[in-house]
Amino acid sequence: MQAKYPSDSICIMTDLVLPGETNPLNNLFGGELLARMDRAASIAARRHSRRIVVTASVNHVAFNRAIPLGSVVTVEAKISRTFKTSMEVFIDVWIEDRESGIRHKANEAIYTFVAVDETGRPVEVPIIEPQTELEKQRYDAALRRKQLSLVLAGKMNPHEATELKALFL
Ligand SMILES: CC(C)(COP(=O)(O)OP(=O)(O)OC[C@H]1O[C@@H](n2cnc3c(N)ncnc32)[C@H](O)[C@@H]1OP(=O)(O)O)[C@@H](O)C(=O)NCCC(=O)NCCS
């Protein structure tokens, strides 16, 4: 399978925060943001693999900054690393200042998707070649995150998590 670049499958979704999508403080409801991130990440994973994809895990979500009603929110999802059948997707969330148009980073998240066939069985995906410095940093740290996610899900013995162990030795 031919290697692809993260820019080949990037998904950028821009939308408003409407009244039905907020919490009692009039900020974007966390579950709504999770859904927007899931949608953008699944599109990036689908573009990369050209397969049906399913969310295998949500590895990290940081709600660093509240997103007020009426904000223009941009969710940017990019494949950070691929393994055999799984893809790590990094999601950056930006809000746009109404007057200046300047974008501020509000949140980020990391999701894992798996490409599957019509029966739901995992299938191989093309490898990814990071290009920018940030893409390379995220690529390098992805194996560690995968091992942590598998250990926490009870799918990997901590003794086999070599990348994680290397952090503490
Ligand atoms: C995700 C799913 C396809 C994995 O199936 P499985 O039988 O565990 O298959 P495998 O053990 O072969 O794992 C497939 C890949 O997923 C990865 N994976 C599985 N669970 C993971 C987790 N918690 N974190 C990170 N990666 C995970 C495996 O490491 C493997 O990756 P690799 O092939 O790139 O090395 C299966 O669990 C599933 O269909 N889950 C439901 C998905 C769904 O409905 N999502 C919507 C949310 S409700």
From TrEMBL:
Top-level taxon of the source organism: Bacteria
InterPro entries the record matches: Cytosol_ACT (IPR040170), HOTDOG_ACOT (IPR033120), HotDog_dom_sf (IPR029069), Thioestr_dom (IPR006683)
EC category name: hydrolase
Keyword entries, A-Z: Hydrolase
SUPFAM superfamilies hit by this protein: Thioesterase/thiol ester dehydrase-isomerase
A Pfam family hit: 4HBT
Molecular function per GO: fatty acyl-CoA hydrolase activity
Enzyme Commission number, as recorded: 3.1.2.20
Domain HotDog ACOT-type: 7-119
Family: Belongs to the acyl coenzyme A hydrolase family.
Cross-referenced PANTHER family: ACYL COENZYME A THIOESTER HYDROLASE
Full protein name: Acyl-CoA thioesterase
